TrEMBL record:
<feature type="binding site">
    <location>
        <position position="90"/>
    </location>
    <ligand>
        <name>Mg(2+) 2</name>
    </ligand>
</feature>
<dbReference type="InterPro" id="IPR020550">
    <property type="entry name" value="Inositol_monophosphatase_CS"/>
</dbReference>
<dbReference type="Pfam" id="PF00459">
    <property type="entry name" value="Inositol_P"/>
</dbReference>
<dbReference type="GO" id="GO:0008934">
    <property type="term" value="F:inositol monophosphate 1-phosphatase activity"/>
</dbReference>
<dbReference type="GO" id="GO:0007165">
    <property type="term" value="P:signal transduction"/>
</dbReference>
<feature type="binding site">
    <location>
        <position position="87"/>
    </location>
    <ligand>
        <name>Mg(2+) 1</name>
    </ligand>
</feature>
<feature type="binding site">
    <location>
        <position position="211"/>
    </location>
    <ligand>
        <name>Mg(2+) 1</name>
    </ligand>
</feature>
<dbReference type="GO" id="GO:0046872">
    <property type="term" value="F:metal ion binding"/>
</dbReference>
<keyword id="KW-0460">Magnesium</keyword>
<feature type="binding site">
    <location>
        <position position="65"/>
    </location>
    <ligand>
        <name>Mg(2+) 1</name>
    </ligand>
</feature>
<comment type="similarity">
    <text>Belongs to the inositol monophosphatase superfamily.</text>
</comment>
<keyword id="KW-0378">Hydrolase</keyword>
<feature type="binding site">
    <location>
        <position position="89"/>
    </location>
    <ligand>
        <name>Mg(2+) 1</name>
    </ligand>
</feature>
<protein>
    <submittedName>
        <fullName>Myo-inositol-1(Or 4)-monophosphatase</fullName>
        <ecNumber>3.1.3.25</ecNumber>
    </submittedName>
</protein>
<keyword id="KW-0479">Metal-binding</keyword>
<dbReference type="GO" id="GO:0046854">
    <property type="term" value="P:phosphatidylinositol phosphate biosynthetic process"/>
</dbReference>
<dbReference type="GO" id="GO:0006020">
    <property type="term" value="P:inositol metabolic process"/>
</dbReference>
Amino acid sequence: MFPEIATLETLLRDVAREELLPRFAHAQRSVKPDGSIVTEADLAVQERLAGELRKLTPDVEVLGEEMSRDEQESLVARAGAGLWCLDPLDGTSNFAAGIPFFSISLALIREGGSVLGLVYDPVRGECFVASAGEGAWVNGERLLPRRVGLSLRRCIAVVDFKRLDRALRRRLVDEPPFSSQRNFGSTALEWCWLAAGRYHLYLHGGQKLWDYAAGMLILAEAGGRATRLAREVSVAADMGVRSAVAALDPDLFGQWVAWLGAMPGEE
């Protein structure tokens, strides 16, 4: 048995209020070996949530983004009955700079796939949740499939350019198939905003497990579709880096995949 979604949602809200928001825009930060930023808020939220999850589900391990690579790989290898995948602060650069777009992401992974996902945006008080086969919700409102009736040329796309290869970056800049482009800086929350229909197309060149474990499930349960760029090996949840091509509207998804030359199948 696993905790009710309501219990987990309350936990994320409480931890964000007590550990995250008081440190917003003035947290002590440092640079990790891979060049990314970590703050005292990342560490405080991870420690607090990991401790609470171990109390709720003592038989389920907790993988956090701020653990060492060796620890993470060991946890994935011995996941057993399940594995909590936690990003304590997705959008750390935004958070440290005072940009109000960041989130906490939590997923339960079983047999290589996410079966439960929550992404909490503490600035807007929005908690996106999904359970495999049961749908997706934001603050109690069901997220439903939709067709927007737009051509690709009229769409807004969220694209992370820095993780794409040079040829594709140049093509997207010189021959954009969409109307305009954004990049918000919290991958987990970007998945959720797509699921809520707040933009139309998504492209990211390199996500890790904690970036997509919850958000991709939320999009799928809202009726959206996702795949990867062509020539990339498709595997179950692991510690590798993966690209993401996605849309909520199935017609736009097909057009987007065709323009990119991405893999035609959905995840």
